[in-house]
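Journal club prep — side note

Before the paper discussion, L.F. wants everyone to see what a predicted structure for a comparable chain looks like in token form. Sequence:
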Amino acid sequence: MLKKILSYLFPIRIYKAKSAISKTLEVTLYNGELVIDAENVNYSYGTLQRVLRFGLNKIGFENIRTMNSILILGVGGGSVIKTLVDEVKFKGTIKGVELDAEIIELANTYFKLNQISNLEVVIDDAQEFVRQENKTYDLIILDIFQDKNMPEFLFGAEFSSQLVNLLNPKGYILFNTMKVSDEDNQRNQKYILSYSDKNVTTRVFSDIEDFNELIIVLKNN
């Protein structure tokens, strides 16, 4: 209880680990809540949970509640999964793909991710998983960072086309990006324009929690 009270004054580190993928991972008690951070960014809960909750709200909790299947590329500590299960009350199947096995261990230990009955977590590279996947989904959540960097393949035409092919009609992509420079802005604009020849509708929400930009893609049919 004392640690929880003190966490409103300053962050309290609970656990620190090394990861071959994410390098440094920390579980921190901050404002009375546990969060997972990498060296320079919040990985799960805290700021990230607010960003993705905002995106889910824009799609609509009631809309998501009627869906059957959700794919999450970049599970991290599983904060968006907690939002889907605890707040949205989503009852369908959730498949999470995460490259870093260490962060899944933290998520299981500190956030009981492995106790969510409708969740399957796969340790795999998202690019390879998408290339080989043959199931389709109603919602794909894309939230892949290596510390504060985003892999280039996420913005490639091949990967975005593969994601659209994995969507059911009227399905959504929710893509969390970070925009901190002119280069990032140009990258995102180019990415959004790449959908102009596809049968989709895009919406963009900028300056969420300072640097996050959410891109929502709706497959029209």
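L.F.'s comment for the group: The CA atoms of residues 98 and 123 lie 5 Å apart. Keep this in mind when we get to the figures.
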